[in-house]
Amino acid sequence: MENTNNVSEFILLGLTQDQELQRVCFGIFLVFYIAILFGNLLIIVTIKSSPRLTSPMYFFLSYLSFVDMCYSSVIVPKVLADFLVKKKVISYVGCMTQLFTAHFFGCTEIFLLTAMAYDRYIAICKPLHYTTIISKSVCSWMVAVSWLGSFVHSMVQTLLTVHLPFCGPNEIDHYLCDVHPLLKLACTDTYTVGLLMMANSGMICLSCFLVLTVSYIVILLTLRTHSSEGRLKALSTCASHITVVILFFGPCIFIYMRPSTTFSEDKSVTVFYTIITPMLNPFIYTLRNEEVKSAMRKLWSRKRLWSEK
């Protein structure tokens, strides 16, 4: 396939063309982004500074918060800047870089959520073997495999896109560079490439979601044999995880489990897993977790004592 690429930059059409609405969106998205950075950073600092939050669940949660910050930072600053200008331009290199990094951090989040479900499965279904199965080295390996698997996934997505010829037009009907809007602009038949991308992204989302679903069905069945106190504590932790999984995987499956077609709802749906979910994660995991809330109160008390001295 001859790569006759005549496009050096792309024009993003953004979420809306209404100038007044763009200013409103700028304020809302800025608040969301500050909440993402502050909330996730607070979780990381709390976990790292608390001697009680050393279990594998909090180890994975700290990495999830870090990934959420990185994932949003790949997308939101550019969106905020575009709300303030009439012509939203991104270079070809910048577009491919955003595509790679967004898929890298997004896929890492999928793998981390799956690892967290496995951790909860072992903790609830095989409690006597938990410390031997989920050791510190195993947790580190699971995180490393998540990073590596995400890198491979992102490289495949990016290489498939880079080899497409773009002859014009160069207007992307989205607020970020993603596979479906770019396939729509390629001046060649993208059916095969679209299927490969769907198999890559869609099957990762679907297979991990099925693993998570089966894990939590088994967990809920196992909880019937636990005491009422233990059942409530486990359900509280699992409910937080299930909420995050639904918020993140639902939109992802809608976007990536289909051929190279675009819908008018795509932009609104994408907002959920790129901005809303990373913002809600800290609240979901802290509001239902007494250990994290207690650690945050102690951290705040130490900070006040230090400032008074």
Automatic annotation (TrEMBL):
Bilayer-crossing regions: 26-45, 57-77, 89-118, 138-156, 201-223, 235-257, 269-287
Predominant location: membrane
Membrane topology according to the record: Multi-pass membrane protein
Source organism, top-level taxon: Eukaryota
A Pfam family assignment: 7tm_4
Cellular compartment(s): Cell membrane; Membrane
Domain G-protein coupled receptors family 1 profile as annotated: residue spans: 39-285
UniProt-recorded name of the protein: Olfactory receptor
Listed InterPro entries: GPCR_Rhodpsn, GPCR_Rhodpsn_7TM, Olfact_rcpt, Olfactory_Receptors
Keyword tags: Cell membrane, G-protein coupled receptor, Membrane, Olfaction, Receptor, Sensory transduction, Transducer, Transmembrane, Transmembrane helix
PROSITE patterns found in the cross-reference section: G_PROTEIN_RECEP_F1_1 (PS00237), G_PROTEIN_RECEP_F1_2 (PS50262)
Family under the similarity heading: Belongs to the G-protein coupled receptor 1 family.
